[in-house]
Amino acid sequence: MNETLKVIKSRRTTRKFKSEQIKNEELQAIIEAGLYAPSAHNQQSWNFTVIQNSELIKELNRESKEAAKGFNDEVIQKMANNEKLDVFYGAPTLIIVSGMDSAMMPQVDCAAATQNMLIAAESLNIGSCWNGFISFLFNGPKAEEYKKKLNIPEGFTPYYAIALGYKDTKAINAPARREGTVQYIR
Length: 186
Ligand SMILES: Cc1cc2nc3c(=O)[nH]c(=O)nc-3n(C[C@H](O)[C@H](O)[C@H](O)COP(=O)(O)O)c2cc1C
What we know:
Blueprint: H1 3-10, H2 24-35, E1 46-51, H3 54-68, H4 74-80, E2 93-100, H5 106-123, E3 126-131, H6 135-138, H7 143-149, E4 156-166
Antiparallel strand pairs: 1-2, 2-4, 3-4
Helix pairs in contact: 2-5, 3-4
């Protein structure tokens, strides 16, 4: 198996990070991988907001959980009301991925960029977690306040965050793959 295939297969979501910050050249390599994702009509409809301020990351954790309290789902309620839960798992870096509202397929472009960044991180042995939980904040009553606070450009909607940092976990096996998801017509 070549290195790219190995990295794709070995990437797992990291849910415990060391507090040590990743190196700037590692961050730049990860961002560059995101920038080189495919996009519908080559619109490159993403915007990345890098946050390396631990107080702000803590605040986003608190506010995301607060906003999630308004969501009618048992699992989400449990997470939202868990005072101890850090939805970013102690990651020292967050990248908020926002999409251009006027683009053709901004969610898809942003997902492609996000996955590129996750794979790039794994190739550097940096842990990552794709975080959809932050969308509660950006769909909640404080959405506009936080879009302003984070300088999200006008006309963009934040979709996800990527938590990044050195892994504080042992390698874990991938969950079993769901069967019957591929059909061949030859
Ligand atoms: C769109 C999306 C949103 C996700 N949101 C979260 C999240 O908010 N918190 C979290 O811990 N993991 C989140 N994940 C990670 C998934 O739980 C994880 O990818 C899945 O359980 C498979 O595990 P693996 O990444 O180790 O293969 C998200 C993944 C995707 C693709």
